[in-house]
Amino acid sequence: MTIDRERDNFTKIAVTLGHCTEPQNVATGGHGCMIDHACESCPFFLVDPLERDGMAAKRDTLMVKLERARVITAPQHLLDHYEARIKDTTKIIDGIDAYLAGLPAAERDHLHAALEHMSDIRHRATAARRIDLRTLLTQDGEGGEHG
């Protein structure tokens, strides 16, 4: 089977954690999403197995939003919306797990190692950092203080 990578770029657009293949959204450069970028609930969403950790983080975020909506007694349709998105995200995660389980052992091991590495990178990238700007601003290029 021949794959035309140039044509492939015209039939999908990058979105968070994957690609959208919905024709109207692709035609408008990502500005025509009919479901407000709830990609996990869209049949046109394609996800890479390496985004498993990102999907798990997205599910956690949706669960927090659902709990907050419950606390403020949001309308039932909003609760249903979050519950459906959580269910759809779980289906994607389960699908990724099933895909990985079906791979030959060597390939599966390589992907699991990549997933662990990406998880570590994502954790480091989102970790809180503190920079003492006062110290940086009061030092010159050699570490001495300005007068």
Describe this structure in words.
By secondary structure, the protein is mostly helical. The protein has two domains: 10-47, no CATH class; 49-126, no CATH class. The chain is 56% helix and 6% strand. The chain is built from six helices and three strands; from the N terminus they run αββαβαααα. The chain has helices spanning 5-8, 23-27, 52-71, 76-101, 105-126, 133-138; strands at residues 13-15, 18-20, 45-47. A three-stranded antiparallel beta sheet has the order 1-2-3, with no helix packed on it. The longest helix has 26 residues, at 76-101. The protein is globular and about 55 Å long. It starts with a helix and ends in a 9-residue tail after the last helix.
The DSSP helix count reads 6
Tell me the count of domains.
Answer: 2
CA(first)-CA(last) distance? 70 Å
Shape: globular
The main pleated sheet reads as: 3 strands, antiparallel
How large is the share of residues in beta strands?
A: 5-15%
Q: In terms of topology, how is this protein built?
A:
Blueprint: H1 5-8, E1 13-15, E2 18-20, H2 23-27, E3 45-47, H3 52-71, H4 76-101, H5 105-126, H6 133-138
Antiparallel strand pairs: 1-2, 2-3
Helix pairs in contact: 3-4
